[in-house]
Amino acid sequence: MVAYNAPFERTAIEGLAAACPDLAAGLLGLSHRLVDLLPIVREHVYDPAFGGSFSLKAVLPALVGEGYGDLAIADGGLASVNLVRLLFEAVADGERAVLRKNLLAYCARDTWGLVLLLRRLRELATEAAAASAKSLYESSRVGAPS
């Protein structure tokens, strides 16, 4: 299961497990299967378009062309605030439907963005391996009889 900033996601899953004991075993099983793309990006990929940030909101547009600017909820802080409103505050039915729709769109973008990011990282790894193999081949040919 792919995540970006797995410690955050693990904490959220553990919170859900504590709140829903009947689902705890399955949820905790998920938390142990998380694969974190953040360290991979931080340690192996950089694009000036990241603007010095390795947040998903900076990395996705730079690497896969997918951003959040077209969404009503475009960042995690706003998503959290709106989720709290949806769950714990008295909100009119019409507004509740809009909040839910906007939160689902934000979550869908995060999820699809991770799919695209994983694909792009695989492409970059393949390109790097091919370049390395070519370099090794060419260096082994230096001085070899023709």
Concise description?
With 146 residues, this protein is mainly alpha-helical. It has helices spanning 6-19, 24-31, 38-44, 56-64, 76-88, 93-141; strands spanning 2-3, 35-36.
Question: Can you characterise this structure?
Answer:
It is built from six helices and two strands. It has 146 residues and is an all-alpha fold. The chain folds into two domains: 1-36, no CATH class; 44-121, no CATH class. Helix 5 (76-88) packs antiparallel against helix 6. It is elongated.
Query: Helical residue percent?
Result: 55-70%
Quaternary structure state of the chains depicted: single chain
> How many beta-strand segments?
2
Head-to-tail CA distance between termini: 50 Å
- What's the story with the biggest beta sheet? 2 strands, parallel
Q: What is the tally of helical segments?
A: 6
Tell me the β content.
under 5%
| Cα Rg | 21 Å
Q: What's the SSE blueprint?
A:
Layout: E1 2-3, H1 6-19, H2 24-31, E2 35-36, H3 38-44, H4 56-64, H5 76-88, H6 93-141
Parallel strand pairs: 1-2
Provide key terms for this protein:
146 residues, mainly alpha, 2 domains, 68% helix, elongated
